[in-house]
Amino acid sequence: MKDNILIVGGYGKVGSIISRHLAELYPKKIIVAGRSFEKAKILSETLDHNVIPYHLDIDNQTDNAVLENTKLAVMCIDQKDTKFVELCIATGVHYIDITANQPFIDQIELLDEKAKSNNVIVALSIGLAPGITNLLAQHCANQISETNVIDIFILLGIGEKHGDAAYRWTFDNIHSSYNINDSGKTKTIKSFTLPQKSNLAGKRKFYTFNFSDQHTLAKTINTKQVLTRMAFDSTILTSLVALLRKSGLTKIFNYKIFQNICIYLFKKMKIGSDEFAVKAVAGNTANEIYECSLEGKGEGKTTAYIAIETVLYVIQNNFSNGVRHIHQIIENIPEFLENLKRYDSTIEVKYKNIRNNE
Ligand SMILES: NC(=O)c1ccc[n+]([C@@H]2O[C@H](COP(=O)([O-])OP(=O)(O)OC[C@H]3O[C@@H](n4cnc5c(N)ncnc54)[C@H](OP(=O)(O)O)[C@@H]3O)[C@@H](O)[C@H]2O)c1
Predict the structure, then answer these.
(1) What's the 303 CA to ligand 1 centre distance in angstroms?
(2) pLDDT digits (tens, 9 = 90+) for 288-304
(3) C or N: which end of the chain has fewer Cβ atoms within 10 Å?
(4) Percent of the chain whose pLDDT exceeds 70
(5) 13 contacts 40 by C-beta, under 8 angstroms
C-alpha cells in the first residue's frame, strides 16, 4: 500500500523537526533518509522507533524501491538535478520541496505537464522565504483592487543555529547579481544594495537579496514589480555586509574554505537571537496599500512547521495536480497561518490596511 511519507534529509536541522511531528501523526509510516544510515537510526531510536531509517544518496541513486510504498516525499536538501523529482512524478508520488534555490525551482516548474498527467502535486516555495513570504504577498494582493508593487522584508536572527546547507545558501547569495522584472523590462540587481527603511521589529534598513519568492510572485501575480529585501537582527552586521558588498569584498563568501570558517564561527558564537520577522506590502496607483507580517522564533523550525502543514493539506485536500507554489495551493491563507500557532504560540500575524488605517 502506498502510504509512507519519505523525508529526504530527514535527520537534518529542518528535516528532523518534520520527521518528529509527522511520526506522531503517522507512526511507522515515516521514512527518514539521508547518506548516513547511522544518523537516521539514531533519530529513529530517539523517536521510539516510530520512523524507519533509510540510506539514500540522492546524487547516486540507483533504484526506486523506496518509492514503491511511498505516497509523498518531502525534500529537505538542495539537489543538483531534477532526476529524483521526475522519478517521484513517474511513480505517482506527491512531492514537497523546501528548497530556496531559484535556478532549481525554475527547472522543476518545467515538469508541470508531466506532474499533471501523472496526477501528482509538486509543491514548491515551502518554508519561511520562500513560503510564508509568498503567502503574505498573495494575501496582500488579494486585499486591494489591483497590484502595482509588492515589497517583501525579511529580518533574520543571527543567533539561530542553522544546518550547513542553509548557511551555504545564504553565503552563496551574498555576492550575487540577479534579474528581476521591472514593469515588463529585465533589470539586473546586485544583492545587498538598494537599501529601504521599513518598520519590522523596529525601524531599520533592508537590502536586496536573491530570495526566490520575488521571482515566483512576479510570474504568478499580475504586478509590475516584486522586490525582496533582508536585514539581520544586528544592524551593525547588516551595515558591515552592505559595506563589504559595495567594495566587492563579499566575493570572499563564494570560497568554500571561508564559508567553512564562517559556519564554524556562527555555530559557536552566542550573539543575536533566533527571532525572525517577515512582512509583505502591496500597493497600487490608487493609493491602496495593504501589509501583513509574521513574527516568530526559529526560521528553521518555522520552515518545518510550514512543510508539515503542507503535507497535511496535500493529504487531506483534493485539488488539481501539477507544479504549484504554496500561494497557489493554500486557499484560506489567514487560516493556514493561524494553524502555525499550534506548533509555536509565540508566532504573531498582523494585518494592516494602511489607506483606511484599519
Ligand atoms: N524555504 C525556506 O525558508 C528554508 C528555510 C531553511 C532552510 N531551507 C533549505 O532547507 C534545506 C535544509 O536545510 P537544513 O538547515 O536542514 O540543512 P542540514 O541540517 O544540512 O540538512 C540537510 C540534510 O540533507 C542530508 N543530505 C545532504 N546531501 C544529501 C544527499 N545527497 N542525499 C541524501 N541526503 C543528503 C544531510 O545528511 P547527510 O550529509 O548525512 O547526507 C542532512 O541531513 C537547505 O537546502 C536550505 O536552503 C529553506
Answers:
(1) 12
(2) 999 999 999 999 999 99
(3) N
(4) 99
(5) no
